[in-house]
Design the sequence.
């Protein structure tokens, strides 16, 4: 094969020559920006999780005094949550977890850190834009946070902020300044996403190392590419909708207000046109991560590489024509419900294809149950529950009952906690040695995993039972309903499990920070993996590679008979004699 | 889980059986996938000195697990159509039906019944007490639903009905209760700080009792 000489796209200044502030704070190095995204999104994860604990406390013991924390948080109302605060907490939990944790940690942290390393580039295509993307997200968070201190408190119309509740300041205490801050913050964080997306697409399309064909890209990179396309197509719609909402609130327009000729349903269409694909923005990178981790620790090639790529593209494509399943009973023409139900059922198909391919990857493997592998397997097993529980809600007649009940809350948490978050846990522990040059404790990783996996199911599976009872979501207190009164026991059980789940995350946190200082020094390739990031030092130097790599094969030639070891890096040239058995993999299709 | 909370309308049968069918299909898929997953983790654990199979895929398997679930999912979708059309599209319209106006506002439900003339939108319409509505059993009820402020959602779990109430618009919904009893209406769309207490009592009773109650309401409104 004729291979072009590696071209240095972007010779950068050497690390030593840069002042501290350019090296660690306003750095244009994708690895530094990736770590910045990782640290801030982990902070947001704990912040959003703390809010979830307050929500669970209220649901187990409605309107009770909260010891210690209550005095700090609800001082004004005597250590007790007030009815105004509950919707605000629900809103903040959803908003922070989605826009400040899951999207930034997957695309921002791992997208940034991994894309150039995995495709064999020295940095992103637009390093300054990359830096700007991070520094636009930071003020966005403080603007959101400022809502807690303004008159009336923070936004409280739900993370979905349905108009007119969100459009009319007099309808809700938090609908004052807090709601405006929420809108501004999301416009900023959306802009950060768009900047990242442009960067990722450009980088992946033009900056691949010689020999890195599109169909040799690791699944993580494929999933980040498709995610970036979703961001680029969806986010501007949300941004426009947010601007219209801001106009309705501030300068007297009536886009979503019926009194002035507007239509409240329009907000829902625009919002879900972005926010349904956003679910895939939050799950696709985790799917890519799980594919790479599973193949590595099964020591076996990923089964059906091309079907895996096409199913990601299929999910993304179908993802844009299913938004109406959030609106079956919204007053949207019910005939449209039939169309959206059919497309929604069909989006389960590429997800099923992916699941079967993961199982086939494991079949016949040599499976090592390390902490990252356990989390990747948990991703598969809980994502299955998330997807299957979605079919109930996709079935329009059944959705008449299940819509806006705890069934949906359980479903979304199985997809985003069970799916995305286990994917994040897998990624953190798998790439930690590459990011920080040290190993995390695998034993503590496994302890964290078992506690998290058990408690996660104890918290969220009962939500399906609550949903089957018809318990509406976002209600601060169900004890006034006769038909929901029997549910207090199960709610208290879920809350106790949630406390344990939160405590288990402290193990991850301690493991993460202790390993930074005390972890075993990581070798170049501690997992004996094939992808390019493992063929440079841990952590990589500022320009990633001492010499730009040349790629000879796909990312998944584990247990190849051509070599003695059970891995074969993408950039390792084989002698002619060695290549004979099978250097080009048998075609997957 | 297994089943939904007990129901008492003509929708309970079809909706509950569809729920059950989806449960069977997804339950089978769940057992299959998690079973294979657990099996592989036991059967294919790392053994010293052994290599995994060097296999990249199988066109036949890909075809099988695309086509089979594809048809199952399409079939599952088609199977829902009739019930959905009955519930939301083919809304009955006849002289036998009882027509009721229901209006939502923060955080109350207000039902309006036709007065003695049996017609809505006339001078003798009567308003029921706030957060209370009575319906006759075994008679079609057609509700004209609206909201005066923000979006609320009319959800009576026992009757298997849910419909958002939109300000500035009238939504039609219908049901036919089959079991007399006292049920609860819960608002299912976040509508503000009092969302959790926006509930109403729904009384389903024989026609005679309903007539007596309505007469009393008319009397009191004079």
Sequence:
């Amino acid at each position: 094969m004729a291979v072009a000489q590696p071209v240095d796209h972007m010779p950068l200044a050497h690390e030593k020559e840069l002042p501290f502030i350019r090296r660690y704070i306003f750095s244009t190095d994708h690895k530094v920006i990736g770590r910045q995204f990782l640290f801030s999104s982990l902070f947001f994860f704990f912040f959003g999780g703390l809010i979830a604990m307050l929500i669970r406390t209220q649901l187990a013991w409605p309107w009770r005094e909260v010891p210690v924390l209550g005095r700090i948080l609800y001082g004004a109302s005597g250590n007790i949550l007030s009815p105004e605060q509950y919707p605000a907490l629900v809103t903040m939990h959803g908003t922070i977890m989605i826009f400040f944790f899951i999207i930034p940690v997957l695309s921002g942290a791992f997208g940034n850190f991994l894309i150039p390393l995995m495709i064999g580039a020295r940095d992103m295509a637009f390093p300054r834009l990359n830096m700007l993307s991070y520094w636009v997200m930071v003020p966005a968070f403080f603007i959101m946070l400022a809502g807690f201190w303004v008159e009336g408190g923070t936004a409280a119309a739900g993370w979905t902020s349905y108009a007119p509740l969100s459009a009319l300041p007099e309808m809700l205490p938090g609908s004052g300044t807090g709601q405006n801050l929420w809108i501004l913050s999301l416009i900023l964080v959306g802009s950060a996403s768009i900047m990242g997306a442009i960067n990722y697409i450009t980088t992946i399309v033009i900056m691949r190392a010689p020999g890195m064909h599109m169909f040799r890209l690791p699944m993580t990179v494929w999933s980040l590419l498709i995610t970036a396309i979703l961001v680029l197509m969806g986010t501007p719609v949300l941004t426009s909708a947010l601007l219209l909402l801001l106009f309705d609130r501030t300068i007297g327009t009536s886009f979503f207000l019926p009194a002035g000729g507007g239509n409240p349903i329009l907000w829902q269409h625009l919002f879900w046109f972005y926010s349904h694909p956003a679910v895939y923005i939050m799950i696709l990178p985790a799917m890519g991560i799980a594919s790479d981790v599973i193949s590595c620790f099964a020591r076996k090639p990923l089964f059906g590489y091309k079907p895996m790529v096409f199913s990601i593209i299929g999910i993304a494509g179908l993802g844009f024509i299913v938004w109406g399943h959030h609106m079956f009973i919204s007053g949207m023409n019910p005939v449209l419900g039939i169309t959206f139900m059919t497309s929604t059922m069909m989006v389960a198909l590429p997800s099923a294809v992916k699941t079967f391919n993961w199982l086939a990857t494991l079949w016949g493997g040599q499976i090592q149950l390390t902490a990252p592998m356990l989390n990747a397997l948990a991703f598969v097993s809980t994502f299955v529950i998330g997807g299957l529980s979605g079919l109930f809600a996709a079935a329009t007649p059944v959705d008449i009952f299940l819509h806006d009940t705890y069934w949906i809350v359980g479903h979304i948490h199985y997809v985003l906690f069970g799916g995305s978050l286990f994917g994040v846990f897998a990624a953190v522990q798998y790439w930690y040695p590459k990011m920080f040059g040290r190993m995390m404790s695998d034993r503590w990783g496994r302890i964290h995993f078992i506690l998290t996996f058990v408690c996660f199911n104890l918290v969220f599976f009962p939500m399906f039972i609550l949903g089957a009872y018809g318990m509406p979501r976002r209600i601060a207190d169900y004890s006034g309903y006769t038909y929901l009164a029997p549910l207090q026991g199960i709610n208290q059980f879920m809350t106790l499990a949630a406390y344990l789940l939160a405590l288990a995350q402290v193990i991850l946190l301690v493991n993460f920070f202790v390993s930074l200082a005390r972890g075993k020094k990581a070798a170049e390739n501690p997992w004996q993996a094939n992808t390019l990031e493992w063929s440079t030092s841990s952590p990589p130097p500022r320009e990633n590679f001492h010499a730009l790599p040349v790629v000879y094969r796909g990312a998944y030639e584990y247990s190849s008979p051509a070599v003695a070891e059970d891995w074969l890096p993408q950039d390792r040239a084989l002698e002619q004699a060695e290549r004979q058995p099978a250097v080009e993999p048998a075609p997957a299709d | 889980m297994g089943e939904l909370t007990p129901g008492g309308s003509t929708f309970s049968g079809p909706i509950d059986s569809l729920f059950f069918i989806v449960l069977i299909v997804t339950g089978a898929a769940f057992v299959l996938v998690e079973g294979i997953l657990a099996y592989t983790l036991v059967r294919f654990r790392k053994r010293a000195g052994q290599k995994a199979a060097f296999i990249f895929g199988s066109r036949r398997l890909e075809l099988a697990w695309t086509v089979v679930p594809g048809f199952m999912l399409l079939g599952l979708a088609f199977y829902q159509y009739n019930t959905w059309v009955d519930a939301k599209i083919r809304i009955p319209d006849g002289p036998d039906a009882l027509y009721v106006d229901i209006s939502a506002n923060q955080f109350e439900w207000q039902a309006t019944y036709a007065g003695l003339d049996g017609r809505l939108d006339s001078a003798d319409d009567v308003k029921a007490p706030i957060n209370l509505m009575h319906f006759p059993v075994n008679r079609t009820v057609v509700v004209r639903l609206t909201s005066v402020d923000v979006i609320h959602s009319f959800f009576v779990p026992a009757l298997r009905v849910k419909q958002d109430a939109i300000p500035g618009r009238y939504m039609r919904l219908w049901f036919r209760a089959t079991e007399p009893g006292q049920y609860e209406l819960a608002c299912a769309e976040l509508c503000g700080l009092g969302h959790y207490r926006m509930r109403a009592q729904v009384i389903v009773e024989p026609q005679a009792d309903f007539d007596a109650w309505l007469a009393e309401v008319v009397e009191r409104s004079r």
Summary: The mean pLDDT of chain B is 94. DSSP finds three helices and ten strands in chain B.
